[in-house]
Design brief:
The complex is a heterodimer of chains A (about 90) and B (about 200). Chain A has a domain at about 1-60. Chain A starts with 5 loop residues before the first helix and ends with a helix. With about 90 residues, chain A is mainly α. In chain A, helix 1 (about 5-15) packs across helix 2 (about 25-35) and helix 1 runs parallel beside helix 3. Chain A is about 75% helix and about 0% strand. Chain B is globular and about 60 Å long. Chain B has about 200 residues and is mainly α. Chain B has two domains: about 10-85, RNA polymerase sigma factor, region 2, helix turn helix motif (Rna Polymerase Sigma Factor, Chain: A), CATH 1.10.1740; about 95-195, Arc Repressor Mutant, subunit A, CATH 1.10.10. In chain B, helix 6 (about 140-150) packs across helix 8 (about 170-195). Classes of the chains: A mainly alpha (about 90), B mainly alpha (about 200). Chains A and B meet through helix 1, helix 3 and helix 4 of A and helix 1, helix 2, helix 5, helix 6 and helix 8 of B.
Chain lengths: ~90, ~200
């Protein structure tokens, strides 16, 4: 088993969020993490990113993006036509 | 936030009121996932039209917003699937310059970019979400699509591979590159700034 660098470990930590990584690689990263504070911190950052992504839709500011007046008018027009067609 | 309980009949589902009430939310939702204003507007319009046509099937048990978002979600996935075929796709590239910025020749974190302890309580700050939005907007398009489908929409990787038309190995690489970029962007524009403030 070769020793994992920070580059390898960060990639494995990321991949572990998406699929089952082989045990050999998992253990190599685990050993690396025992001695590497930056990588242990990176793991927490990945978790943080995941939580931030999941909370994003409901937390994003209403002012960050709004439908333009033009788009709004266009959509309303399309809906009215649809209503009349029925 | 709680939705007001609906008591009106289906005839009471008024498109103008929908647009007023949910238009901006749906637009933001689509814009986050497509990063293109025109496409986001078009999909919001298609969503309202589809909802209007299907209004008799709207189950009063679920909230209107959840129902509308469900329709929009399908439209976004369809759009992404089609756009992968239409847009010239250059592949993900064998090397990533960011890796050389972050790691030295032996694969160790460079001193200047080492991950710092992450401060808590960012989620209660509106500025954090603005920073997150801006960092997402800066991602290369295909990386952003992969990240959003995986981390916001919590899709399984085989499903995302189908939508984006990539192999699992490529998707894992894309997700890793997206996460590294987002982390670095937040490190510079959020964590770094926060540290100097405190």
């Amino acid at each position: 088993m070769s020793l994992f660098s920070c580059k390898d470990t960060s990639r494995l930590l990321s991949e572990a969020l998406d699929h089952d990584v082989p045990a050999v690689r998992r253990w190599a990263a685990r050993i690396h993490l025992l001695f590497c504070t930056p990588c242990a911190r990176f793991r927490r950052h990945l978790q943080f990113l995941r939580e931030a992504a999941r909370g994003f839709d409901n937390a994003a500011s209403p002012d960050s993006a709004r439908l333009s007046g033009e788009a709004r008018a266009r959509i309303l027009q399309a809906l009215k036509q649809e209503g009349q067609a029925e | 936030m709680t939705e007001p309980q609906l008591t009106e009949s289906n005839e009471g589902l008024d498109p103008a009121r929908w647009l007023e009430k949910y238009g901006d939310y749906l637009y933001r939702y689509a814009l986050t996932r497509l990063n293109r204003a025109q496409a986001a507007e078009d999909l919001v319009q298609e969503t309202f039209l589809a909802a209007f046509q299907a209004r008799s099937r709207f189950a009063q048990a679920s909230s209107e917003r959840t129902w509308l978002v469900g329709i929009l979600k399908h439209k976004i996935v369809d759009h992404l699937r089609k756009s992968q075929r239409e847009l010239p796709w250059s592949g993900i590239g064998a090397t990533d310059n960011l890796l050389d910025e972050l790691f030295d020749a032996r694969g160790h974190w460079k001193k200047s970019v080492r991950p710092a302890p992450s401060p808590g309580a960012a989620f209660e700050r509106q500025e954090f979400w603005d920073t997150m939005a801006s960092c997402l907007g800066q991602l290369p398009e295909h990386l952003a699509q992969a990240f959003v489908l995986r981390e916001m929409d919590e899709q399984d990787t085989p499903e995302i591979c189908k939508v984006l038309d990539v192999t699992p190995t490529n998707l894992w690489v894309m997700l890793h590159r997206a996460r590294l970029r987002l982390w670095k962007c937040l490190e510079i524009h959020w964590f770094g700034v926060e540290r100097t403030r405190t």
